[in-house]
Amino acid sequence: MKKQKETFKKAVEDFKKYSLKNYGFEIHVYFKKESTSHPSLKDLETIVMLKLKDAHQEYNSFESFKDLKTRKRSVILHKQIYSYIAHVEYGYSKSAIARHLNQDHTSVIHSIRSISDALDTNDKLVMSLYYDILIMMKDYVGFITENTRIQSIT
Length: 154
Hints:
It is a single chain. By secondary structure, this protein is mainly alpha-helical. It has helices at 2-23, 41-55, 73-89, 94-101, 105-120, 124-143, and strands at 27-31, 148-153. It is built from 6 helices and 2 strands; from the N terminus they run H-E-H-H-H-H-H-E. The longest helix has 22 residues, at 2-23. It starts with a helix and ends with a strand.
């Protein structure tokens, strides 16, 4: 058991270095009590927000999509991709995603359909952004086990 904890702690430290080097953000990890097989909606949102902040510096002061009251294409696109990945990749219900974003579930349905259509028609912007975010999420989920989550970013 002790060896397993040491291995896990090393993996966490390696991921911290990896995220700082490859994505330019530092991650702080703490242990949560409940056990889930996939990341929470908040963790997924944090990763998508990091991608948005990386591309658009004017959003650095915002922590979540709930804070962003804008109809700018870049923000809407990130939010739609977040909804699509949360639903399609991780199986969250549309109503759970809507509750998390303080939106109506029909907005989430529209977001999922929009991204699905864009991916079907090979929209280069959407595909590029989608795969970049998906890789970031897979790195996070694949490297850190299900009993950790993002606490803060500095």
